[in-house]
Amino acid sequence: MAVHKVTYYTPRGVYLDTLTRWFQMSYSRKENDYGSLIIDFPPEVDPRYFQIDGLLEVQRSLDGLRFQNDVQTMYFIRTVRNKYDEQGRRMIRVLAYDANHLIDRRIVAWGDGTAQSKVRDQCDHMINAIMRQNFGSTAGTGRDLSAFLVINRDNPRSPCPTIEMEFAYRKILPLLQEIAENSTNQGKYLAFDVIPITPGKFRFQIYNGSRGNNRSQSSKRPLRFSIENGSLSYASYARDHTEERNFIYAGGSGEKASKTVRTVSNAKAIAISPFNRMEDYISTGETDPDVIEEEARARLREAEAKKSINGHLQQHPNSMFGYDYGFGDIVTVTFGGHSFDVHLDTIEISVDESNKEDVSCFSRNLPDSDY
């Protein structure tokens, strides 16, 4: 059985309280995005007690083991609501966002054509540079968070592809998401996260390979979920061609005769029937034919037919969330003679007033290129 408590700190990390009573609590994490924490407190709690950007840390104890930070984050309070619901209950609802929300608070505050807004670099190095230039000591007056946010050094052996982008005045979170997706679409998994070091102090971290532990089929400690061993309550397997596109036309900048067009295709996919040539066109805005072709190949990879496996992971003596597996891990799901390594990139947990817990994990299949 899991038991939860919530520790409350000021924005600077000064301890205020430990909270153990609520009507309902739910919290989530999602890779390369921010999750939320929602807690409904009894009405005797004074809503003025909660300050904006106060920090809430969810701690979890499994089967009597020591309490520890769950899902490796802290949540910033953003809304405090005095509420009366349809069942006639009064409550105080607190909404907080996890530490990745810090990234969503900034734009690239550098003008067109500057070295900080027009960059050619490896994807992970580019992300780190954007963070340093907009959150670090060189970010400008009123923007320096280096006392609270440590940005890890670049990986000198980065496996990520090199890209070129211009991004003056863009919002930083969707920009980082685009860069990470670009790398992953080119076969090199890339994730980022803001994780707590101590209450009130955080680290911006880049992940290559996987966000969490690799417990895939090829690992030293594989973790398998199946109907047969009792760790899945539901499973399905599908071959999905609904969004398939296997012949891509990619156009560059220019018009009419001056427009460069490149094509790429998957001949094996097209040949499965006389009708399965599935075309698409993308406009790249590029002039370099090699860049245009690479964007076409990225679209081809993105739009290939999918083999998908789905399952409902349930708590089991040999597969306990928070002990055997957790947020960002790679595990194996087996059903109907098919086994896939899946990446648990989204976690949602709800806890009622008696501490009964429901854990939901969402994942995507991992292509071979992610290894």
Task: Give a structural overview.
With 371 residues, the protein is mostly beta strands. It folds into 4 domains: 2-97, Beta Barrel (Thrombin, subunit H); 106-208; 224-239 and 307-370, no CATH class; 242-304. It is built from 4 helices and 22 strands. The chain has helices spanning 123-135, 172-185, 267-270, 289-302, and strands at 2-9, 15-19, 24-30, 36-41, 55-62, 68-69, 75-84, 90-98, 118-122, 149-151, 162-166, 190-198, 201-208, 224-226, 232-240, 247-251, 261-265, 279-283, 306-313, 330-335, 338-352, 357-365. Strands 1, 2, 3, 4, 5, 6, 7, 8, 14, 20, 21 and 22 form a 12-stranded mixed β-sheet that branches. Strands 10-13-12 form a 3-stranded mixed β-sheet. Helix 1 runs antiparallel to helix 2 (172-185). The two termini are 35 Å apart. The mean pLDDT is 92.
Keywords:
4 domains, about 40% strand, 22 strands, about 375 residues, 12-stranded mixed beta sheet, mainly beta, Thrombin, subunit H, 4 helices, globular
- Rounded Rg: 23 Å
Q: Major sheet: size, sense and barrel closure? A: 12 strands, mixed
Measured distance between first and last alpha carbons: 35 Å
Quote the average pLDDT. Answer: 92
| Strands, total number | 22
| Helicity, as a percent range | 10-25%
The domain count comes to 4
Overall SS class:
mainly beta
Count of helical stretches: 4
Oligomeric assembly: single chain
C-alpha geometry: globular
Q: Give the DSSP E fraction (strand runs of 2 or more residues).
A: 35-45%
Order of helices and strands: EEEEEEEEEHEEHEEEEEEHEHEEEE
Low-confidence stretches: none
